[in-house]
Amino acid sequence: MCDEHGGPAEALAAAPRLAEGAAVDPIALQPVDEVRITTLVDNMFDALLGSDERVSRVSPGLAWEPAAQFEGSRTDPGLRAEHGFAALVTVRRGTSTTTLLFDTGLSVDGMVTNASRMDIDLSDVHGVVLSHGHFDHAGGLVGLAGRRGARALPMVLHPGAWTRRRLSLPNNHIFEMPTLSRRALEGEGFEVVERREPSLLVDDCVLITGEVDRTTEYERGMPPPHQAWTGSGWEHDALVPDDQALVVNVRDRGLVVLTGCGHAGAINIVRHAQRLTGVDRLHALLGGLHLSGPFFEPVIPPTVAALIELAPAMVAPGHCTGWRAQHALAAALPDAWLPSSSGSTYRLAA
User: Fold this and answer.
1) CATH 3.30.70.20 is right for the domain spanning 31-49+75-349
2) Domain spans of the chain?
3) Residue 233: which pLDDT band, with cuts at 50, 70 and 90?
4) Are 186 and 194 contacting, i.e. CB atoms less than 8 angstroms apart?
5) What residue ranges carry the coiled-coil annotation (predicted)?
6) pTM above the 0.90 mark?
7) Phi-psi region of 227 (alpha: psi -120 to 50; beta: other; left: phi over 0)
């Protein structure tokens, strides 16, 4: 739906920024003993996927609901899939364990429904991180607030997440995306923390990248139909500057990078995390990589080539990665690639 290539102005808007050498303000990211990432919402749910030592999947008989057409008047609906993303991140260091929510899916009730069916208590969440302001990552915030009641919950986001955005499509169809409201979120009990710069959470064990440096030549951001309101008019929003990722350093293994859509580019994000932390080794890459559709397909080969060089132990792309990129990654990294699905729990340990 966003497949057009732009002219010189669009190319200039998406030009990479220079970011060479070590970070000026390096991040002392403390290593952890284990991180578990549970995909609460993804574009796909496959009840037939198997589990192994790296990932556990939900089993049939998960949650029964009334259905009069069956003997016994009940059925097992499995989990919801929707065009959105939400992940529960549980970090353990020694005997200390902390749980964060990274994005909340598209619909008001999709994430909380899946959590309930998986017997996950979202009242145990210590904080929320938004990868960016697109509505398919923030739709479940109200549902989360309803489950928690009036208790305050910190939420970290880039200030650009409030940006008003739209898609101006070739057939003259305009789709203005739902825009986050700070006043509404604070009214629901969220303590909003705005940061353009990197943030350290959970006793310095979790890094939120903040705004990502764009250093590759091929990750050009969004096509011209993706626009932002400047206050006086609509302009091409190529960079989606509010895009950020969550990073954990697993002891003796390396970095685990979790993206929402990866609008900054998967390789830009990984290199940014490496530069900030001084940790060269990429252990795992999970989340949306936004390589779907004709505009992004030329980005697939160099992305795959860079990931082959990085040699992660796990690659679990989901959400907006797209089937062509999934096939390419599965073929190039057969020992590392895992299919993503709502209800998958990935365990990465020292």
Assistant:
1) no
2) 31-49+75-349
3) very high
4) no
5) none
6) yes
7) beta
